[in-house]
User: Fold this.
Amino acid sequence: MDAATDARFVRSFGEPPRSLRVQANGVELHLLEWGDASAQPVLMVHGMRGHARWFTPVGPAVGARYRALSLDLRGHGESGHVGPYGPMTFSDDVAALVDTMGLEHPILVGHSMGGSVTTRAAGLLGERIAGLVVVDSGFGPPPERAGNPGAPGPDARAWSRERETEAPRERRIFEDWPSARARFELRPGGTIASAEMLDHLAFHALEPLDAGRYRWRFAPDMRHRGPGPGARPGVRPPMPSTPFPELRVPVAAIFGGQSPIRGRTDLANYKDRFAGATWTAVEEIEHVHHHVFVDDAAAFNPVLMKYLDRMATEAVPTRRETSPAPARACTSAP
Assistant:
């Protein structure tokens, strides 16, 4: 894999994204942007040890009608490595990003751990967002354990304190592309994604160094057993105690029928976790695995667009009283 090959793959989905860098919540965050910057924003958030390019096959479709934004969470992709890491900090970053960029009535889309992140961010932002879409995300406490909106549990606070005091670890270096690519795998396992798509995800999960060497882009001190390349046994960041019944916006959940997340999720009761939502929809794409849109964007995108369009139609625009800080735009990012 090289940059030219990757750029051709990106262009196969449509216009390549633009690259933005925004300072928010004490860290420089990198985003990809498709579509008209004046259109209603859709902010997409990847899972643990993923990156913004996970949404490469989704961004152009969303950007045809919306301002599509895909975020590199802190410690991931091209965003800054500033700890502590974990779902709570990531959620705070998303909320701060909405404020900093002045995003009016954004729709939040979160995949895997990104679903937990965007759910808590939705609780922090309240009715300032137009809706929430969670993709193959099984998370959080049952409704009977709901508490104060957006409040972290004691385990989450302790985990954040541990991350603040933990000594940084070095990122693993690979001597060449084949050895680095061989270490990349999707977690949870199972996929029908093309080899080209997996090469693309691996290419942007790795940072090129001198002499043809590579290292992971994600911060090495995010010890986690969950999805992502190079994951290893360790401490799982606890999910925040987000009380879903407090959300007062539309919520849609999209699952992969072959995903282990779907296998342990009772869809009949899933809506109860969002009892306060304006409306809740749950849909399953039967033939795909956990990385739903990586497996089959052609099947996923129409389902996503259906919910985005409904949420956008029902949103009531409001005027912000503060001026947003400008994003620092970079060149196109194929």
In short: Residues 297-314 form the longest helix (18 residues). The CA atoms of residues 122 and 129 lie 7 Å apart. Residues 17-168+241-316 form a domain with the Rossmann fold fold (CATH 3.40.50.1820). The chain has a mean pLDDT of 83.
